[in-house]
Amino acid sequence: MEDTNRRVLRVQNAIRDVLSRYLISHYQSQLGVVLSVPDVRVSKDLKHAKILISVLNNPEKAKKVCEFLDEDHTDIQAHLGSQLQMKFCPKVRFYPDTSYQIWDKFREIEA
User: Which residues have CB under 8 Å from 56's CB, separation 6+?
Assistant: First the structure.
């Protein structure tokens, strides 16, 4: 069980590193926003990956960016598959990162 957890963590980190560089170099200027990949969550069977996308200074635009990336997922998937040394590449889906909302609520409570 522990080996599986370590493997999932290694795959998550590898996907985050590869996609961060790829999205910044290929999509950031095209979309006109500053992108980041704060987190990647991979299923235990390594078949699916949930990619969280954050847009600097414009969190409302993250949903539209994710929709755009989902439409272009075949190219992104192909690049990811070519970079990962795995028998099968997880299928990626993009979701807006909403963790900033939690921090905003904490700030409201403290004020």
Answer: 33, 34, 35, 36
Each residue's pLDDT tens digit, 52-87 = 999 888 878 999 999 999 999 999 999 999 999 888
Sheet containing strand 91-96, strands side by side: 35-42, 48-55, 91-96
DSSP state of 59: G
**φ and ψ of 92, to 5 deg:** -100, 145
Q: Are 14 and 82 in contact (CB under 8 A)?
A: no
CB contact at 8 A, 66 and 96: yes
| Helix axis angle, 62-71 to 73-83, nearest 10° | 80
